[in-house]
Amino acid sequence: MSNHLYTSCDAQFTSAADPSLWSQLCFTPRSAPRAKRQPLYTAEEKRRRDATPWTLVQGVLAPLQFLVFLISLGLVARYLATGEGLWLATASVVLKTALLYTIMITGSIWERVVFGRYLFAPAFFWEDVFSMLVIALHTAYLAAIIGHIGTAQQQMLLVLAAYAAYAINATQFLLKMRAARLQEQAMAQAGAERAS
């Protein structure tokens, strides 16, 4: 019986080089039509985005926060490397965290005006999810300095984790803004070609 089973299995796998077998097992990519990517904003959402003053607020706060982040990162790195400038590094992180809270609150208002919800609008869902991690890490740092939890060096290492998360989150938003701009350019170009 085992010889019969072996012969039966062997017969089924002798044609492993047969492309039809691999396509049945889904190992070869099929040329499926690509789904058309949804624009980041509908026409109405774009109109609301362009009309609300909260867009300008975000446009000012985001680069300001990034500038404070760069300065603070340098101060934190200086403290970790030399042991000097703890007070200045701490003050810079507190300022960065205050800006983060401000941009999160104003960003939620902006999201409500544009998309009809304060957080987790489909267009910015993953950016908002990662923002929660960024806020949690910054808040953990504040709790550590207020509660005198850990050494100063451990607290600054927590800052580095928070800043790494912030850098990833900022990149998410920059990529999303770039995608929106490219989509708008493509739509404008398509509209111009239809008009001509």
Concise synopsis of the structure shown:
The chain has helices spanning 2-13, 19-24, 43-51, 53-82, 86-115, 125-146, 152-195.
List the helices and strands and how they pair.
Blueprint lengths: L1 H12 L5 H6 L18 H9 L1 H30 L3 H30 L9 H22 L5 H44 L1
Q: What can you see in these coordinates?
A:
- The chain has 196 residues and is mainly α.
- The chain is built from 7 helices and no strands.
- Helix 4 packs antiparallel against helix 7.
- The chain is elongated, with a radius of gyration of 26 Å.
- It starts with a helix and ends with a helix.
Order of helices and strands: HHHHHHH
Relative helix content? over 70%
Question: What is the CA-CA span between the terminal residues?
Answer: 76 Å
The unreliable regions are: 1-16, 18-29
Largest sheet: none
The strand count comes to: 0
- β-strand amount: under 5%
Which oligomeric form is depicted? single chain
